[in-house]
Amino acid sequence: MSAIAAHAWLDVETAAELRALVEAPTAQARVRESWKYTPVLRGLNAVANVAATDSVVAGAPDGSLRVDVAPTASEMALLRERACACPPAAKLLLGARTIDRLNLDTSPASPLQLRALSPVRPLVVHIAPTVRATILDDVDGASAGWLLVCLDTAADLDFTRVRPSCPRDEWQQLQFDLADDAQLIARHYCRGAGLRRLDALVRLLGRNASATISGAWRVDAGDRLDQQWHVEHLAPGTRSEQRHHGIVADRGHTTFRGRIYIAPDCPGVEADLVNRNLLLDPGAVCNTKPELEILSDDVRCSHGATVGQLAAESLFYLASRGLDEATARTLLAAGFLNECIDGPGAETAAALLRTETDHD
User: Could you say which of 196, 245, 314, 351 is the most buried, measured as most Cβ atoms within 10 Å of its Cβ?
Assistant: First the structure.
């Protein structure tokens, strides 16, 4: 570890704020709202007592990845701002002395693969102006992790995250900051866990920045999945489009909160959000909560969420073509998820979410 003293980069006031958030995690109204469906203490426990490891990025240009380094003042400002609103992030930042950093100054010739994410240090990725990159994040085994990606002017990132099922509790934080004309495609495919919590934030900071976000998941066997997707439009002419499909079966429990925020003086914003969910069993639970906060004129926004079951008409149609009910249900469920699966990692994601046990 670095010789930097613990918390030397945190001012006294910020350190006290973070400690208060860890010690009384639901004292703030915004924290109670974001954790209303998930035990916050389990999220905090996912960050505790984890072994220190380094982030690993396969295919990264030589010298571009540095681990266990001191954060810059601007990096610390970003991390501190996010940590002050999320108890597990506050706990991780209080314990971290350093960060891991990946600088992409030129466009990589091939996709990068994030193979390990440090559970004790944030990984900060900087993508330089006009650089184009593809990142596949298929880390398995980390109970905690924090990934912050900063896209400079006209940078372009294609990002895919894949997470298999696991029995343990897990908390992850994901953040993208986009400058002028930057473009992001982000995909998130996952199964459930003992408790899996993702806090995701996309900030469109520059004019004409755009984000296209999609997700597909399946949760069963009593597992839990809580996703908090926040998209903030902080500049004029920014655009975001989100489509998320989830399946809940066999006493699974999911929560999806999709929040769109449009700041004052941001005309020309376009933002769309769709979350559709299928319940395959009477014991399955799905909480979905789309939100809009619009503080600017001359914008176009839409949002919608549905929770339903496989259509009886579709099952009847497939039965009339000679398919048994179990096969028909499997095909319909796969088709529902496939609407949100594409790009790099699509084949892996389809296999991850496939099941042969759809039933009443």
Answer: 196
